[in-house]
Specification:
Oligomer: single chain
Distance between the termini: 34 Å
Length: 248
C-alpha cells in the first residue's frame, strides 16, 4: 500500500498562499523593524529611535519570525511542485532556500540583542547600532543563498512543461540581482553611496518576478495551468493523448 503524498497542485496552493502572506509581512517587517529605527552611521540617533519605537521593532521582529516560518513551508511546497521536473535540482533549490531561512532566523538574535542593549544601563549607543547592523548584514548574506534559490527555480521552470519562459528568466535575473547585492555589500566600503541604486537593481526584477510567480502558482493550484513536469514526460504524454484521439 502506497503512503499518501501531497499532490503538486496542493503544494502550489500552499506556496501561493504563503507567498501572498510573505509579501505583506516582509513590507511590515522592513518598515517596522528597521525603517523606523536604523540610522546608518549615527549611533545616538539609532539608539534614541529604538527607545522611541521599541514597540514597532518588536512587532517587526514578530513579522520577521512569521516570514521565517513561511519560508520553510515554501521551500517544502516548491520541492513537491518541482521535483517532477528534475528531483535533484529541486532538492538543491530547497536547500538553498532553507539556508537563507536559517540565516534569517539567526539574524533575529541580533534584533533581540539590540532590544536588550538599549535597556541595559551603561550600554553604548554604538553597540546598539552594531547589533542592528549585524541583523541587517546577516540577512543580506542569507539573501545570497535566496538568490541562488531563485536562479535554480528559474532553471527548473525553463526545463518544465507548462511554465512561462519569461517568468523563468525573470526569476534567474532576480536571483542574480540578490547575489550581486550581497557581493556589493562586501566589496564596496562606501556601499551606502550606492544603496538606492542597488535597491532598485534588486527590487524591480524581484518584486515583478515573485508577484508573477505567486499568480502562476495560484493558477496551477486551481487547475488553470498545468502542474510542471519534465519536458520529455510532458511531450510524451501530449503525443500519447494526440495519438489516442486520432484512433477514436
Amino acid at each position: 500500500m502506497n503512503a499518501p503524498t501531497t499532490t503538486p497542485r496542493t503544494a502550489a496552493g500552499w506556496a501561493a498562499v504563503s507567498y501572498a502572506l510573505l509579501f505583506v509581512l516582509a513590507v511590515l517587517a522592513n518598515f517596522l523593524a528597521l525603517g523606523s529605527v536604523l540610522e546608518p552611521g549615527d549611533a545616538p540617533a539609532t539608539a534614541a529611535a529604538l527607545v522611541e519605537h521599541e514597540t514597532s521593532l518588536r512587532l517587526g521582529a514578530v513579522a520577521f519570525l512569521a516570514v521565517f516560518l513561511l519560508d520553510v513551508l515554501i521551500a517544502w511546497a516548491l520541492l513537491v511542485l518541482l521535483r517532477a521536473v528534475q528531483p535533484d535540482l529541486a532538492l538543491l533549490a530547497a536547500w538553498f532556500r532553507l539556508t537563507y531561512t536559517v540565516m534569517l532566523g539567526a539574524s533575529l538574535v541580533a534584533l533581540f540583542v539590540a532590544l536588550e542593549l538599549v535597556e541595559t544601563p551603561g550600554a553604548s549607543d554604538s553597540s546598539v547600532l552594531l547589533a542592528l547592523q549585524s541583523f541587517d548584514f546577516l540577512w543580506v548574506v542569507g539573501l545570497s543563498a535566496f538568490g541562488v534559490h531563485l536562479v535554480l527555480v528559474g532553471l527548473l521552470l525553463l526545463r518544465a512543461t507548462g511554465a512561462p519562459r519569461p517568468l523563468a528568466w525573470l526569476l534567474v535575473l532576480a536571483g542574480a540581482a540578490y547575489a550581486t547585492d550581497t557581493v556589493a555589500h562586501l566589496v564596496l566600503s562606501d556601499y551606502e553611496a550606492y544603496a538606492d541604486l542597488m535597491l532598485a537593481v534588486v527590487a524591480v526584477p524581484s518584486v515583478v518576478a515573485e508577484l508573477w510567480f505567486t499568480v502562476w502558482l495560484a493558477l496551477v493550484a486551481t487547475g488553470r495551468r498545468p502542474a510542471p513536469s519534465a519536458r520529455g514526460t510532458g511531450d510524451y504524454a501530449e503525443r500519447t493523448t494526440s495519438s489516442r484521439s486520432l484512433t477514436v
